[in-house]
UniProtKB/TrEMBL annotation:
Gene Ontology MF, one: FAD binding
Domain FAD-binding span(s) in chain numbering: 10-331
Keywords: FAD, Flavoprotein, Oxidoreductase
Name by which UniProt lists this protein: FAD-binding domain-containing protein
Coiled coil: none
SUPFAM superfamilies: FAD/NAD(P)-binding domain
Domain of life from the UniProt record: Eukaryota
UniProt KW Flavoprotein keyword: yes
Keyword set includes Thylakoid: no
Species, as recorded: Kwoniella pini CBS 10737
Pfam families per record: FAD_binding_3 (PF01494)
Length: 427
């Protein structure tokens, strides 16, 4: 049986972090001609560890990137919760805490996908789309860039993250509800200091005033990752300010945060990869335009926030399904949009559910509240750290898999038949 070749159908992908290049990776394999436009002047650095699991790992295996991913694991050894004075209340190893076996820096993940796509995809840095004109009858999308360039593509894919502007230009913002979850987050790199406590751990310091600081090892030569979070039931607009103002705000809010805050503030001015966001979930009732020529993917379509721990996995698996449906229905983009929804929305809806009490339980106003929270973490640590639980856990998992094989079976559809094996035909 032969399948229609998608060759020479052109696709513009806006956003070059995770979801964008993951979609390009697959579209290239099916014979589409892909271009990625990334607003940043280079591959965007920054961010802390993200982990890959479940359908995310299944997508990675399909991409044959298991080894490339493993080579980039940060090697973080576990998670430790402390108070301001570095008294540890909970210490758990990999797999029993926030630290998973598959921790990789977001920037390293983006770089891995860049390396995998750069030969076939045209990458444009430092530009962005300013208007989108979808011409359904002609079966094309006309796009204008900030640089003044105008181009026509067969498809447009928006992978610009939760605060996507292109989503608006493509008239898909009307289907999106942005639901704040009540906290600010910032990530940045600082120089590594030998004296760093819990230096191979994800070290989370709970502070009164509904704040926390954290440090994570990146196992790079001279750096480590710092981060902060603080509760705010509404946006104060900090996320729209310049990095200089954002740094000043972080220094002000954490001025009394003890030695861990002092270390972070000391280096804050030097950091050139600050990521500062007021966290919110993206709930979109529709991911594609009526014609099926414009699609949303990744955080632009379904951001769950780092609190669900699935952002990266959802992006690469969702990208796989979107590209697969586009190849499957190359002659009918509307059917592709339908297939994308049907195959992927149920997983997204499930994944977006925040665990009870998250994030608010982490943010305590008083010293006393922080103590209660840390003592709860200490009990959690005792239970999950106990030899009994750690011995019994894998046994229960094994029984579970035997009883319910469908729950642990592969979850992603198969699109192998649309891959063009002959690279010369593809290019
Ligand atoms: C710098 C950075 C650091 C992050 N750090 C973490 C972290 O530590 N932990 C975590 O869980 N998640 C982090 N995230 C979010 C995480 O990457 C996503 O949740 C997830 O991987 C989905 O990725 P995405 O590609 O859909 O969106 P994102 O990763 O948000 O990427 C969107 C990309 O689109 C680009 N872009 C934005 N607007 C435009 C535009 N108008 N035109 C063209 N390009 C545009 C951005 O520069 C970015 O490269 C970070 C994201 C970024 C951008």
């Amino acid at each position: 049986m032969t399948f229609p070749i998608a060759a020479k159908k052109s696709v513009l992908i806006s956003g070059g972090s995770i979801a964008g290049p993951a979609t390009a990776f697959w579209l290239n394999k099916y014979g589409f001609k892909t271009t990625i436009v990334e607003r940043w002047h280079e591959l965007r650095p920054g961010g802390q560890s993200v982990d890959v699991n479940d359908y995310g790992m299944e997508a990675i295996q399909k991409m044959n990137l298991g080894k490339a991913l493993k080579d980039r694991f940060t090697g973080e050894k576990g998670t430790t919760f402390t108070d301001k004075n570095n008294k540890a209340y909970m210490q758990l190893p990999i797999g029993y805490s926030g630290t998973q076996e598959t921790e990789i820096l977001r920037g390293d993940f983006a770089d891995m996908l860049y390396q995998e796509t750069k030969d076939e995809t045209e990458w444009i840095f430092g530009d962005y789309i300013t208007s989108v004109n979808e011409q359904e009858a002609a079966g094309m999308v006309e796009v204008e860039f900030n640089s003044g360039k105008k181009e026509v593509y067969d498809y447009l894919i928006i992978a610009e993250g939760a605060r996507s502007w292109g989503r608006k230009a493509a008239s898909l913002d009307q289907y999106v509800e942005y639901k704040p979850i009540g906290c600010y987050v910032a990530y940045f790199s600082i120089p590594f200091e030998e004296s760093t406590p819990f230096r191979d751990q994800w070290h989370i310091v709970a502070l009164p005033g509904r704040r926390c600081i954290y440090y994570r090892p990146d196992f790079k030569a001279n750096t480590q990752r710092a981060g902060i979070m603080f509760f705010s039931n509404e946006s104060k607009g900090y996320e729209k300010q310049s990095p200089e103002k954002q740094k000043a705000k972080i220094a002000e809010i954490f001025a009394d945060g003890g030695e861990n805050a002092d270390r972070m503030i000391k280096y804050l001015d030097q950091s050139d990869d600050l990521y500062f966001e007021y966290l919110g979930q993206v709930h979109a009732s529709k991911w594609s335009s009526d014609s099926g020529r414009v699609h949303l993917v990744g955080d632009a379509a379904w951001c769950g926030t780092p609190m669900i721990g699935m952002g990266c996995s959802l992006s690469i698996a969702g990208a796989y399904i979107l590209a697969g449906e586009m190849a499957k229905h190359i002659d009918d983009p509307k059917l592709a949009a339908k297939g994308y929804e049907e195959n992927w929305r149920p997983t997204v809806l499930e994944a977006q559910k925040l665990p009870p009490g998250i994030p608010h339980i982490m943010f305590q106003e008083s010293e006393w509240g922080v103590k209660v929270f840390l003592n709860i973490m200490s009990v959690v640590g005792f239970i999950f750290g106990s030899r009994l639980v750690r011995a019994v856990g894998p046994i229960i998992e094994g029984i579970w898999k035997r009883l319910f094989p469908s729950l642990s079976a592969n979850k992603l559809p198969v699109y192998d038949q649309y891959i063009i094996q002959d690279e010369t035909v593809r290019k």
